[in-house]
């Protein structure tokens, strides 16, 4: 009987694991589980955003695969940046740091699981990374160098547990990622080495009386325009991912952590309005319901009990047996609560997820609210990307917006897609959750 063929493939593997998880669990089990759940929602979302697939989890650890080493490294850095923001908003004793390792290797595919050295090396790289940092193997480094502007630290060859050969390791800390200039390349290419040797030979021959032109190795000159455009795009992607992790938070510290990193970012106005709204809500006192004491009668004479008289049902109409209404003067009028007035100028922010081959959508534009009626319109009614929504704000501050947009997807370009958003105002801030068709979106209103 022929042996069953082994299914293999080349993938980039990301391994992430929490630092001192057991210690934190022993000190505050419920609190640690809450923080872990929040961190995992961030990690899982960023992995999905970068087209990764989680193939194994165990408590506080995550293993994910990527078809691209570049995507895997970007994902690792953005996870660490996002978790740093969340940890900065927590008390020090509740902070949960992660280590991450990334390796490129040939792995064995067994159902939905991946096995082999490619996975094991990623896990060992994670174990030697500093808390909050990333370690990558030389195989990954060779794939991303020249494609990402990163400041790597050459950690040299490392003996990893249960790995038969040394692995050349490079380290990277968040905050020195997409916007950092690349460090001097520790591993020169074969062309660079050849140029260096040629230059040395030329110098020796020149010293012996034979003059040859000295060849100086020249570093590759990246296209400034392409590098700058790529850096801006990645910067915006990282900001959007970070904003997605804090935008629904009721903790002003998390929003302030976003502003600290992006003080003039795409969502900075929204974050400031949200913080102000949360602080106003925290300062608003809860009014107790006052019950007016019953007034005593003007006379101090005791009230005599009325004599008991047998009812004569046959001789009285039925209405006489019913309780008479209280005198008009003794009734306490109930004043209806005045509806909040939202009239004025507002900024609109529409933030939609990626869908199929189409990138995420981010639109910001002004609108006006009149008599608590919201009418949102952007673009030309015959062009792709046009948005039209309307709705009426209810007395309790809830708002449901309905309407449509014209699709920007190449396959459905210009076709109308219905949209619905529901949310509630909190002071000068509104966030409605909904979708255009099957694409999840968030619509935010911030008073100018």
Automatic annotation (TrEMBL):
It comes from the Bacteria. GO terms for molecular function: adenylate cyclase activity. Pfam families: Guanylate_cyc. GO terms for biological process: cAMP biosynthetic process; intracellular signal transduction. Residues 12-126 form the Guanylate cyclase domain. This is Adenylate cyclase, class 3. It comes from Formivibrio citricus.
